[in-house]
Write a structure and sequence with these properties.
Cofactor: Mg(2+)
Pfam family, one: NUDIX
Keywords: Hydrolase
Number of helices: 5
CATH topology of the largest domain: Nucleoside Triphosphate Pyrophosphohydrolase
GO molecular function, one term: hydrolase activity
Structural class: alpha+beta
Oligomer: single chain
Protein name: ADP-ribose pyrophosphatase YjhB, NUDIX family
Strand content: 35-45%
């Protein structure tokens, strides 16, 4: 999301190489393997608009399903940033998935065909996404793996923090981690977090804020049974409060990536072997 001083928003139009030619969207695109999402949005913005930007904040995180022209169903996880222009000249992309970039007056986006997620972010009406029926699972990881995950910095009224220990044989095995995990096909980050929180800890919480976005790229990671994964995970971190904490226990089936779960004081947590995501999250909150 990039706005000018007079409130106009910068939009790009899908080219003939895109899935939806002639449909307008916020500038952006896919995260390359191993790339930090922050770097992605700066790179994609420059490619599609010719402008350099700096990130001002993370606005929201979304997920949606769309039926592509060939009939397949695409699940997209989207991190929506607020950005500010720092240089460059407005120039449309050539030979890419967009062919035009324009500043659109605040009252005008509703007059254009918009991708549904863009319409939602801008607060204007759009054609609804066609409902998708059926049950979809998560593919088994083989070779290069890129996952989108939602994680919780979950605390109770006493200030304790909820952590999970990664099972041996998984990346980070033996370390204590924030509860959470990958989103399933058709699942929003919020729903994925609620599911993972219960599966890994038996707790039910309430999201109180978006704490940040990070990633981890581990090309040497080994999965279960020593299978190389070339692992890249994009992580959204939410602040979560658990209003009625109970004894934490793993409820997912045996053999999963979570060995145990427990509540800890901040002092106790500081003496545990922690993943870098957990260390960073606890450090940012004192």
């Amino acid at each position: 999301m990039c706005r000018s001083a007079d409130g106009a928003v910068l939009l790009t139009r899908g080219s003939g190489l895109s899935a939806f030619p002639g449909v307008w969207s916020l500038p952006g695109g896919g995260i390359d393997h191993g790339e930090h999402p922050d770097d992605t949005v700066v790179r994609e913005f420059a490619e599609e608009t010719g402008l350099t930007v700096r990130i001002a904040g993370v606005r929201t995180v979304l997920a949606d399903l769309a039926r592509l022209p060939d009939g397949t169903i695409e699940h997209s996880d989207r991190i929506i940033y607020d950005v500010v222009v720092t240089g460059g000249e407005l120039t449309p992309e050539t030979a890419g998935t967009s062919d035009l970039a324009e500043w659109v007056a605040a009252a005008d986006p509703a007059q254009r065909p918009l991708l549904p997620f863009t319409a939602g972010v801008l607060g204007v009406g759009s054609e609804p996404i066609e409902p998708v029926e059926g049950s979809f699972g998560t593919p088994e990881p083989t070779g290069r793996v890129q996952r989108f995950g939602a994680y919780a910095l979950a605390t109770d009224a006493a200030g304790r923090v909820l952590l999970t220990r990664i099972a041996d044989g998984y990346p980070g095995g033996g370390h204590w981690h924030l509860p959470g995990g990958g989103t399933d096909f058709g699942e929003t980050p919020e729903r994925a977090l609620a599911r993972e929180l219960y599966e890994e800890t038996s707790q039910r919480g309430r999201i109180t804020g978006l704490a940040g976005v990070s990633h981890r790229y581990d090309p040497a990671a080994l999965g279960p049974e020593g299978v190389p994964l070339d692992w890249h995970v994009i992580r959204v971190l939410y602040q979560v409060t658990v209003p009625e904490p109970t004894v934490a226990a793993v409820t997912e089936a045996a053999g999963g990536s979570t060995a145990e779960a427990a509540w800890f004081t901040r002092e106790e947590a500081g003496n545990l072997p922690l993943t870098e995501l957990t260390r960073d999250a606890l450090g940012r909150t004192g």
